[in-house]
Design a protein that fits this description.
Layout (H helix, E strand, L loop, with lengths): L13 H86 L2 H17 L6 H36 L13 H25 L9 H5 L1
């Protein structure tokens, strides 16, 4: 009979244990390296996305700033300039309505010429006064009244302009209100004088009896 063999398991050698532990460490190191690489890749994408977002916000802020500047210029500069120009124009028209313009003289001379042509073949004294002198007189008053009425309307526009449209940050300058008020006053005075002269309320036409005497 063969001798009995020992049933005790043979323990692994020390070299086998060291090999398995080294392999496990290599696997763990590889897994950790992959994880770090993935984390680093994700953070880089996030950083790029944050940079793009910051650039977009910066461009939007610049566009908003440009829009604000354009709105301020469109709201303040044109309205102030229009009111100031209207005030000066109203005063000039008021002066023309009181003193007369070359258009009034041209219209008066035309009416005088037409009256002379109508009365060339003869006519009463009253008719000659009306055709030659009265029509020219009334035409001059009408033209001056038109200039005075324009001065009144433009002056009112200069005063009420800030009440319409977008409100301006700066109030209307005092000199603009003063000049516009002067234009309105001249316009009202010119309209009253023109109406009185046109309807012979201030100075009446010469009478035929006085001319015959």
């Amino acid at each position: 009979m063969n001798p009995t063999t020992s049933k005790t398991p043979i323990a692994p050698t020390a070299e086998g244990d060291h090999g398995e532990k080294a392999a496990d460490r290599l696997d763990k190191a590889a897994i950790e390296a992959e994880g770090e690489r993935a984390v680093s890749d994700g953070s880089g994408l996030d950083a790029d996305a944050d940079r793009d977002s910051d650039l977009d916000h910066g461009l939007e802020d610049d566009l908003d700033l440009d829009d604000d500047l354009e709105d301020d210029d469109s709201d303040r500069a044109p309205s102030g300039l229009a009111a100031a120009a209207a005030a000066v124009v109203a005063t000039g028209l008021g002066v023309v309505g009181l003193t007369g313009a070359w258009t009034g003289r041209v219209v008066a001379e035309r009416e005088t010429l037409l009256g002379q042509m109508k009365t060339a073949s003869g006519g009463s004294v009253a008719r000659q006064i009306s055709e030659i002198y009265g029509d020219a007189w009334h035409s001059t008053a009408l033209v001056n009244g038109i200039f005075a009425l324009l001065a009144l309307l433009v002056g009112v526009f200069a005063l009420v302009r800030p009440a319409f449209g977008a409100p301006a940050k700066d109030p209307q300058p005092g000199w603009v209100r003063a000049v516009a008020t002067a234009g309105i006053a001249l316009g009202v005075l010119g309209v009253l004088i023109s109406v009185g002269m046109y309807f012979d309320l201030i100075v009446a036409l010469p009478a035929a009896s006085a001319a015959a005497g």
